[in-house]
Each structure stands twice: as C-alpha cells, then as structure tokens.
Amino acid sequence: TCSRHDGLFGMGNKRHAPKKGRPSRKPNKKKRNKRKRDDEGEKIGSGSIDRTKKLAAARDRNIDERDNSFQDASESDVENEVEDVKDSYRLLLQTFKQEPKASRVKTASHSRKPKKVELSDQPSAEDESGVESEREPEGNGFGESEWNGCEDGGDEEEQVEENTDEEEAQVNENGEEGTNKDEAAEADQEGSDEDERAEKGEGEDEHEGEEDEEEDQETAVDGLDSDSAEEDGMAPDEFKLHLEHELAESEQVLEGQAEGRKFCVIGGADWDGLEALGSHVFCSGTAQALPLPPPPRSLSNCNIKKRLLEQWQACVAKSSKPRRRTAAASLLRRVFPSIPNQQECGVTELQRSVFALLNGYRDLVFCERTVANCDELMQVYALHVLNHALKTRDRIVRNNFKARDRSSDADADDNKSLRDQGFTRCKVLVVLPFRNSAYRFLHTLLALLPTTFKGGGVAHKARFEREFGSEDDDADQDGAAKGPPKPKEFHEVFDGNIDDCFSIGLAITRKSIKLFTDFYASDIIIASPLGLRLVTGAPGDKDRDVDFLSSVEVLVLDQSDVFLYQNWEHVSILFDSLNLLPSQPRDTDFSRVRAWALNNLSSRYRQTAIFSAYLTPEINTVANRHCLNWRGCVKVRPSYAGSIAAVIPHVRQIFQRLHCTSPADLADTLFNHFSKQVLPPILNGQQSHTLIFIPSYLDYVRVRNHLKSQEASFTSCCEYTSGKAITRARTAFFHGNRRILLITERFHFFRRYRIRGVEHVVFYSLPDNGRFYADVINMLQSSSVDGSTVLAAYTRWEVLRLERIAGTDRAQKMLSANTSVHMFF
C-alpha cells in the first residue's frame, strides 16, 4: 500500500516532501527582511553589533585626530597620546554616570535627528563626549557641516577645536581617575541598546509628538538655503524685511482709518514692470514702501527655496516637451501649459512683473485677468504661497533648536529673535469660487512641490479627486459640442465641478502633504466664500469660530469677479473676520508670538492679492478698507478699447446720462427714469419683442413687481428660475405671446443662452461685465435690425462700467460733455 506521502506509483513526491532539517512551512518574509536590515547595520539603523563596532572605530579615529591637533609634542610621542585617550574615555564614563537614565533614554530616542551644535550657547554633554558629533544624521542626508553653513561639507576638525578646551577643563575639575576602557565600552553599549529601542519605534503611540518634532527638525535643514541667500550676493530677503519691520506710531493705522490714503499713478519711467503689464498702475503706501522692486531677470535672485526653484524649472521644461497622452501628462499640461514667449528662466514678462510685486509683500489688486493669462497668474501666486509657507515653517523649526538649547534667563533680545509665530498655524488662505478652480490650484501646488515632499505621497488624494474632480468631463464636452457654442470664458469658469461650497485644509510635513486636515493644524486653507461662511458662522452666533483666521499672513482671492455673481456679502464678512485676536489661547506659546500680533496689528502685515477680470466698486471698497499692508497697495487697471467694438449688428445705440447726487440715490434714480420715460412707450404698443436687461437682482424684483401692478404682458428669467420655466418663457417671448422679457446679469452669466426673437434692447443699467453688452445686442434678429433700438442708462457713479463698454478715453469725454445723450452706430 502506498503511503499518503507517496506519489501515484508509490514513489515519494520529492517536490512536496519536507527536507530534513528544514521546516515544512515557508520562511517568514518579515524575519528575512529583518535579517537583511541587521546585515546592513548602521545604514538601516538596526542597532546591531556591527554598527556599535563601526561607531567605536569612528570614535577612536576622531579622538586620535582631535588629540593630534592639540598636542604640542611630536607624533612619535606615543605615551602622551595614550594618556590623552584615557582622559577622553574617562570623561565619557563620567558623563554617563552623572546624567540621569531618563535623560539618556530621551537622547537616544532622538539619536537619528541632526544635532545643531552651533546654535546653542553651551555645548551639550553629548557634544563634549564626542559620541553624537561623530554619528552621521540620517533622514535628509545632511552632515553636520551643512548645519554650520559650510560649503565644503564635512570639516570636523573645526568642531573638535571648539569643544576641546571645555572638555579638558571639565576633566580637571572633576578629577576622577582609574576608569578603564571596559567600563566606557559597557556604558557605550548601554546607550547603543537604548538607541536601538528608539530606532525600532517602540512606543510610537506614546510619542507621536516626538515623531512630529523629528519631522520638523529634519525639515529645518532645507530652510538654511533661504538664510544664506544674502551671503551669496542675492537681494535682501523680502520675507524677513516684511515680517521683522517695526511700525512707527504714525504707521499703526487700523481698519476703518485709511480713508485719507491716496493712490498715485506710476509711469513707465518709475517702474520697469509697467511695460509688461501695459496698464494703469496705481500705488499707495508710505515713503518707505513706495519704491517698487524691479522685476527680477531670473527667479534665482528672489530668495526662493532652492529645491522649489528647481522644481519650477523642471515643470516648465516638462510641459514644453511632447509626451504620451496619459492622464498625468494631460493634467500637467493643463496645470503648466506651454506658455508662449517664455524665457529660459521659466517665467514670462507678465510673471516677472507680478512676482516682483508679490515677492515684495505688497498688496496687489490685479484687474487684468483673462483666459489667456489665468494659468500664468495661478502659477505665480502658487509659487509665492508655497515659498511663504515653507519659509515660515522652516524658520519655526530652526528657532525650536535655539529655544531648546537656550537657558531660561536669556536676554530680551534673544527672546525677541525667537518670536516667529502667530496665534494659530494657518498662514495662507486662498479663496476660489468653485471646486474646479480649487482642483487646478491644488494640482499646481503639488506640481511645484520639491521631490522630497512627494516621497511620502499625498494623504487623502483619492478623496480629493472624488470630491473635487469631475467624473463626467467627457459627457460635458460632448454636450457642449451638441449645443450652441459658448465663449472660452464660459468654459474656463464652468468646466468641471462647479460646486461653490467647499473648504479644505492642507498641512505640509517633512516628506508628504496631508489634505483635509483640521484648520488649526493646517498651513494652507483653500475655500470658497460660502464654505468659509458655513465654517465660521454668521456674526453674532454663539458658536462662531474665526480663531483659525487670526494669523493669516497671505490672502489670495482669485476670480474675484465671479464672487460678485455668487454673494459678495460672504466676502465682506470674511474680511471682517481676518486677523482678530483669538477668543481662546488654544495651546499658544505666547513667548513665540510676534509683538505686532500681540498688539493687534496683524492686518498691517497681511498681504492681500486680488485677481479679477475687471475692477468694481466692491473690490475698490475692499482695497481701501482692508488692504492695510504697511508696504502699500498696488492696483493694476487695463486701458479698455470698449466692448462696443464687438457689436455685430448695425443698430442705433443710445447712451443717456442720468443726474444722481450720491450712490445712495442710484437705485431710485434708475427706477424713476425707467418707470416714467422708458416703460410707457413699451406698454402703449409702440414696441414689441423687447428684452430688458437688469444687472441687479433687487432692481429686477422691483421692476417685476411694477410690471405686475401695470398688468403688462411680460415674462421673466432669473438665476433662480427652473429649466422648464425658462423654456416656457423663451418660447412665449419668441412667438409673441409675451411682449417683454426680463433677464438678469447673473442669469446670462450662468446660462449664456442665445434668446431668439429680440427686436429691441433696454439696459436698465450698464452690466458689470462689458462683454455682456455685446452679447445681448448680438441677439438681435438680422431681419429686424433696421427698426431695432438699443437704450442704455448710466450715471457718473458707473464710470468703471462705462469705460469697459465705451472705452477708457471715450468714457471720460461722455462724462465731461455738456450733453447727456450720446448715440453710436
């Protein structure tokens, strides 16, 4: 009979039969990997015997070099060398005896951190013993010489010379003798065992704070390149100049007290960057802040983080090369498109001029954003935002080393140099209208991150792609192709996810990026006005929380013109909630908080950058009341040729100027003119198929109620009208069942319908977007153009709208002319 281990013909199955001396189960991969790590020794940090021998041998070599540098006798005097070696080992044993065991364990737990000996006033016990100074720090791979700022990298003899005199003095004071090498080796073995336990990660749950601190310490190495910029002949670091400036009493202007501030016009001779902008530039500020920095010829002279600058150049280089059609390649090409006229340094003329203003930490109101330059502007302020966040974090980590080694009775000047924080962690706030804008900005930010941060990946990236990305991009494009063509501006705003309620926190760690972090643990917050309003709450609420906005140092508002079509009140409340004193301490170390933050002057140090397609009174109000940066504010306004040139039908266009004494009377002036002069001829039957364009929703409600009281034949469409109601209204107006059609500017902004059957157009008031004026007039039917009329009313308080429609030069003539009626063909 065949046994159960035999094969089909009674032969043993040698392939499956267990061999003698070997277990039948498969070897454990974890144990095999552990053995490999143990074989590598110091390189992997396993704490093995080989690693201890290597450290001892390195320590012996260093001691020999140290003694040789300070020895007066000749090299052949062996006896003196032996005595010096014994003294060094005696000092080592004395250090381990005097130091408590708990402190030794703590030192071992941080053995992998780079030691910053130069920042402390007194060298620590580990540095005097020569053990920790010899260990090569792991992590980012920077040696001790790079902490000293040395360019040659690795001159250990200078460190030995600094500590030898103190070591010899300590040996003479204690006077302990008779210590042998065995005791020193035993003490060293004890420290290495503790080092091994720390490296194996025992008690990770109990020491999460220490791990985060370790990450911050290793990050500090990267921050040293920004501090050494001035030594290399670069321009002064604007980051330091801006935050370390002490305001005089005359400069301490709080919010609501800046009515007397005036803007001066800068010409091309005053600033080299004006030619690239091709616009009117207005600047305000003190005499110390008025000289604008010249646009940099290269970004390498702007004190940008070195690895960040290299990543910028790499992104620009990759975007210009042809690549395969993959998802990652298409995303990079969309985030970093190949921009024409891009120089070798990776920036265009527009980017050079804008970055000069941003890097100078001046408030910027840029009202020349277009579809063509929107990618350039997002790249520039993403680079500035990331550079500011990394510099702020690296400075805090670097000062943590100083505060740890500094005694409690330090001077006031020393404590002043350590004030590098605000009340909370968040330093950058980016406000965007829709999720698709946040999606593009975050991917631009991730593309600019150095490769060291990408090693740990992006936490919760799948969730971000699911919530902010659009799954039906192809379906949307197909639908857009079937319907009437939409302008590029519409696709730039509405392609993708157009949800306007979102808020996301972003934390930068040593080697990774964390998304959806708590706002009090975030370095950068990306949100919409509505999303922030829901998080902070309304003014007067008991549970209102705005403390996480108390330390914002850089505020960016992109596509600000879109905020006008959402709800500008959310933006106004946001500015009222910024840089307030926190209601709770929230574990704040007030010894590290900047003095100007404690004095409630944070708004004077906040940089605000507003990017918009055009300037409006609302944006002007924000710039005058809330852009209080001590370095001044810069407004960039284009010179308009007028959208009236884009009108295709040859039709009479009548502009009538109304007399209005104050902006408070503007609504009543427009309504009285419409109800008494414009509406009666329409109701009497003289006109039919009349389209009335009303910019404000409040005016739309007022006119609609008035038409209802007059029992007029009309229909209406606004941004709140459903799709079916819009279809019925458009059909009734086209077939003549309703003689009047009311639409709002927000309706046209979100829908962009081409309404048929329009023969007459009445602009209740001029639209904010000058392009809409030509869009509405181009709806006129070609068969009825001869008898069509276009009527537009305006006041002198709407000069910004008028210059976008009629042109900058023509608008000034129309406002200063004696006649109040102007006709264009």
Sum up the structure in keywords:
825 residues; alpha/beta; 11-stranded mixed beta sheet; 7-stranded mixed beta sheet; 34 helices
Radius of gyration, in Å, reads 35 Å
Class computed from helices, strands and strand pairing:
alpha/beta
Tell me about the largest β-sheet: 11 strands, mixed
Unreliably modeled segments: 1-24, 41-48, 70-76, 99-232, 323-329, 474-481
Mean pLDDT: 74
Secondary structure: helix percent:
40-55%
Strand order of the largest sheet: 1-2-11-3-10-9-4-8-6-7-5
β-sheet strand percentage? 5-15%
Shape: elongated
N-end to C-end Cα span: 112 Å
Overall strand count: 18
Q: How many helices in DSSP terms?
A: 34
Overview of the structural elements:
- By secondary structure, the protein is α/β, with parallel strands linked by helices.
- The chain is 44% helix and 10% strand.
- It has 34 helices and 18 strands.
- The longest helix is centred in the middle third of the chain and has 32 residues.
- The termini are far apart.
